[in-house]
């Protein structure tokens, strides 16, 4: 069954074409990691699927039985003064006991459930939002960079929650380790559209390497490889935490440099300097992501 059919989607902002002829189907049960460089249009594509943005051309058809839930890159709640427990109870229409049990699965225990939503950290907001989204009758979860603010325990919790989710998942992430844990399919956005790979991130890398060397025909690549990484993670927790910390710091730096550029796009010298810094930081990120996969 097809949950979402995308056909020749195009989207431009001004003269700048973001999405060019994006076509692929999302099948029921797919766990798709949507990847692509910064600004390649990943968030835009998610919003087209969610009907929050209109495409310039092409078709996005959503199956009639599909119920989507969306984790935005910027997480908001209707009432920021409400506490965690009441937010959950009101949204899911359940009693306190059930709410506390469910919240505990998302690592809110004891007094933490009485924290006001506005006082939650980025990671806590993500956890609460996921708790709400996953209790509804959603069968298509759409997540935009869900691990961005998460510490290592929250990331493990999220991995478990997503791996036990029976529906379809479409998620954007730059965290290759996380992508490997969740996805059974990778869709890469590039200048000429969307390329689909039927495997996890390792499989995608293999395909790209083979394509680049052009020694092997892509058709020869068949078997999906999934490494037993979960066990390794525990034994290398320290190294992982260090690497994740550095990744987080770099991502924060990149975000703040990007913000400077957005705030003052006319200050050409500053923009050029910041772009260079971002490029260097992204090169380091690449290395760190490789390390994450290796650990
Ligand atoms: N409303 C808008 N008006 C003009 N340009 C926009 C608008 N929304 C997004 N863009 C630009 O379109 C491009 C694609 O944006 P989008 O947010 O979809 O990329 P992305 O792949 O999600 O990036 P990231 O990895 O940084 O989240 C970016 O260059 C962005 O600046
Ligand atoms: Mg985005």
Write the layout of secondary structure elements.
Blueprint: E1 2-13, E2 16-27, E3 31-35, H1 42-49, E4 57-62, E5 68-71, H2 84-92, H3 96-105, H4 122-135, E6 140-144, H5 152-163, E7 168-172, H6 176-182, E8 185-190, E9 193-197, H7 201-213, H8 229-235, H9 237-263, H10 268-294
Parallel strand pairs: 3-7, 3-8, 5-6, 6-7
Antiparallel strand pairs: 1-2, 1-4, 8-9
The structure holds adenosine-5'-triphosphate (ATP) and magnesium ion.
Structure description:
This protein has 295 residues and is of the alpha/beta class. It has two domains: 167 residues, Rossmann fold, CATH 3.40.50; 64 residues. The chain has ten helices and nine strands. Strands 5-6-7-3-8-9 form a six-stranded mixed β-sheet, with helices on both faces. Strands 2-1-4 form a three-stranded antiparallel β-sheet, covered by helices on one side. Helix 2 packs across helix 3, helix 2 runs parallel beside helix 4 and helix 9 runs antiparallel to helix 10. The longest helix is centred in the last third of the chain and has 27 residues. It is globular, with a radius of gyration of 20 Å. About 6% of the residues have low confidence. The structure holds adenosine-5'-triphosphate and magnesium ion. Adenosine-5'-triphosphate binds next to helix 1.
Largest sheet: 6 strands, mixed
- Helix-strand pattern: EEEHEEHHHEHEHEEHHHH
Return residue spans where pLDDT drops below 50 for at least 5 consecutive residues.
215-231
Adjacency order of strands in the biggest sheet? 5-6-7-3-8-9
Mean pLDDT: 88
Based on DSSP secondary structure assignment, what is the total number of beta strands? 9
| Bound heterogens, unique | adenosine-5'-triphosphate, magnesium ion
Distance between the termini: 37 Å
Q: What's the helix count? A: 10
Q: In CATH terms, what is the fold-level topology of the largest domain?
A: Rossmann fold
CATH architecture of the largest domain: 3-Layer(aba) Sandwich
- Fraction in beta strands: 15-25%
Structural class given helices, strands, pairing?
alpha/beta
Estimate the helix proportion, in percent.
40-55%
């Amino acid at each position: 069954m097809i949950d979402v059919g995308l056909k020749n989607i195009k989207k431009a902002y001004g003269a700048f074409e973001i999405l060019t002829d994006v076509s692929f189907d999302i099948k029921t049960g797919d766990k798709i990691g949507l990847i692509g460089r910064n600004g390649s249009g990943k968030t835009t594509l998610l919003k087209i699927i969610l009907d929050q943005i209109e495409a310039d051309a092409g078709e996005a058809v959503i199956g009639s039985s599909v119920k989507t839930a969306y984790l935005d890159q910027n997480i908001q709640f209707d009432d920021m003064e409400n506490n965690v427990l009441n937010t959950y109870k009101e949204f899911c229409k359940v009693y306190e006991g059930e709410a506390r049990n469910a919240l505990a699965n998302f690592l809110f225990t004891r007094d933490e459930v009485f924290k006001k939503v506005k006082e939650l950290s980025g990671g806590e907001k993500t956890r609460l939002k996921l708790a709400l989204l996953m209790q509804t009758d959603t069968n298509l979860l759409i997540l935009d960079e869900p691990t961005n603010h998460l510490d290592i325990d929250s990331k493990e919790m999220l991995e478990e929650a997503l791996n036990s989710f029976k529906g379809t998942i479409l998620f954007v992430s730059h965290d290759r380790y996380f992508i490997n844990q969740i996805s059974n399919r990778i869709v890469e956005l590039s200048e000429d559209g969307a390329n689909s790979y039927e495997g996890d991130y390792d499989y995608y890398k293999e395909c790209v390497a083979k394509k680049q060397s052009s020694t092997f025909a892509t058709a020869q690549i068949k078997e999906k490889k999934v490494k037993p990484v979960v066990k390794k993670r525990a034994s290398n927790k320290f190294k992982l935490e260090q690497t994740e910390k550095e990744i987080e710091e770099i991502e924060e730096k990149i975000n703040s440099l990007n913000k400077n550029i957005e705030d003052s796009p006319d200050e050409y010298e500053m923009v050029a300097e910041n772009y260079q810094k971002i490029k260097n930081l992204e090169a380091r990120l690449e290395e760190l992501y490789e390390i994450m996969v290796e650990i």
